[in-house]
Write a structure and sequence with these properties.
By secondary structure, this protein is α/β, with parallel strands linked by helices. The protein folds into two domains: 51-143, no CATH class; 155-404, 3-Layer(aba) Sandwich (Aminopeptidase), CATH 3.40.630.10. The chain is 27% helix and 17% strand. It is built from 13 helices and 14 strands. The strands form three sheets. Strands 6-8-7-9-12-10-11 form a seven-stranded mixed beta sheet. A five-stranded mixed beta sheet has the order 4-3-2-1-5. The chain has a two-stranded antiparallel sheet with strand order 13-14. A hairpin with a 6-residue loop joins strand 1 and strand 2. Helix 5 (186-203) crosses helix 12 (379-398). The longest helix is centred in the last third of the chain and has 20 residues, at 379-398.
Length: 412
């Protein structure tokens, strides 16, 4: 095994806002049975995609999209992005789309759909759960959708660097450099970007065996624009040289749990093809975590980050994640520490995803009693995930056969 580079997290860092220095978490607890795939709020039908009439050409309908589970039930993929909604199934029946919030804890208010509008030909708006229920349950309701949209060309550039290594064998590691529109994005995704930067600093001038290529992607929050453009522009011969792509997106969630991309298909069915070799990447990441005394759960491949283009190009994928919205279970709190009943990332896609969040001060104080947090960043978790990424990336670069000789990919 090729030795790992010096651990990025071992250098002196900023003093945590709350809490002690890095320390052990509570002992792991047995993992519970899998939970339902997507929660459906009480009283919401799940048998069909409800619609209401719309004022528009040909009396086409406006789809009222209920819970996330209904998108799947209706044959529509879900990845928190508008560009997933503009598929042929929806656009053949709708003059517009109203996406209502789920109605589960923390997901009741109005929200703004995010993502690429490339090719979108109908208005898409978001609304609160109660408003959506009222619209869909009112027989004969008529709805007028009016949107004012400013369009302007924007140039965004991804950053790609690489180490000294075999030019015919490439291991890629990527993290998106942009943030959601509403916040500075300390966890999403300065955490992943910082892990890549630490890795680049350690490996500067080092022959890593295979070429280790690091990418900071532009436009992820707008529809995976940077990574999609990068892969689309690669000739097939260049794609064939990439033996693995590792993705890090949100790896310092303040109330974290440790997730590894599900490359062996042992969890929920993925929403992207998972090429052969992805299971081997999962095993390498699992081993890197185990060497640090930690375990993990499968991270659902829900087409929500920059691995998508690589997976669709047949390149083995893997990655790390520490949670976004969604309340932490009692079992997760026993296994990973933190607070049960509180979101993994309290400020996901909000302005408080910063180093000085003003929201939920009591929760942050309590988290600080259990781990080392600075603003919306869990410093202990960031260290752990940066170390795990570095170990796995260097190990695969030193021995690409771990992936190229592996199998176990899963096709949806």
């Amino acid at each position: 095994m090729h030795p790992a580079p010096p651990a990025p997290g071992q250098q002196a860092g900023p003093t945590p806002t709350y809490g002690p220095a890095y320390g052990p978490q509570p002992a792991a607890a047995p993992w519970p049975p899998a939970q339902p795939y997507r929660p459906t709020p009480p009283g919401v039908p799940t048998t069909s995609l409800p619609r209401t009439r719309a004022e528009g050409p040909g009396s086409r309908t406006v789809g009222i999209v209920f819970a996330l589970s209904l998108l799947l039930a209706a044959g529509l993929l879900y990845a928190e992005r508008v560009d997933v909604y503009d598929g042929p199934v929806l656009l053949t029946v709708a003059a517009g789309v109203v996406i209502m919030n789920e109605g589960t804890t923390g997901r009741t208010g109005a929200f703004t759909p995010e993502g690429s509008v490339v090719g979108l030909t109908v208005p898409v708006v978001g609304t609160a759960y109660d408003v959506g229920v009222e619209l869909a349950s009112t027989p004969g309701a008529r709805l007028r959708l009016v949107q004012e949209i400013d369009r302007a060309p924007v140039i965004a550039s991804s950053i790609v660097v690489e180490t000294v290594g075999d030019p015919d064998v490439v291991v890629m590691v990527g993290a998106h450099l942009d943030s959601a529109p509403d916040g500075p994005g300390m966890n999403d995704n300065a955490s992943g970007s910082a892990a890549l930067l630490a890795l680049a600093e350690r490996l500067a001038g080092t022959d890593t065996g295979a070429t280790l290529r690091l990418a900071w992607w532009a436009g992820e929050e707008l529809g995976l624009l940077g990574s999609n453009a990068y892969v689309a522009d690669l000739p097939q011969a260049e794609r064939d040289r990439i033996v693995a792509y590792l993705n890090v997106d949100m790896i310092a969630s303040p109330n974290a749990r440790f997730e590894v991309y599900d490359g062996d298909g042992s969890g929920r069915p993925p929403l992207v093809p998972v090429p052969d070799g992805s299971a081997a990447i999962e095993r390498v990441l699992q081993g890197a975590l185990a060497a640090r005394g930690e375990s993990y759960v499968d991270s659902e491949l829900d087409a929500a980050s920059d691995y998508v283009a690589f997976a669709e190009a047949g390149i083995p994928i893997g990655g790390l994640f520490t949670g976004a919205s969604g309340a932490k279970s009692d079992a997760d709190a026993e296994r990973y520490g933190g607070l049960a009943g509180v979101d993994y990332d309290l400020c996901y896609h909000q302005a408080c995803d910063s180093l000085t969040p003003a929201e939920a001060p009591e929760a942050y104080e309590k988290l600080g009693e259990r781990t080392a947090v600075m603003g919306n960043i869990n410093l202990r978790v960031l260290d752990l995930m940066a170390d795990t990424l570095a170990t796995a990336a260097v190990e695969i670069a030193a021995n690409p056969g771990l992936v190229t000789d592996g199998a176990g990919g899963w096709q949806p």
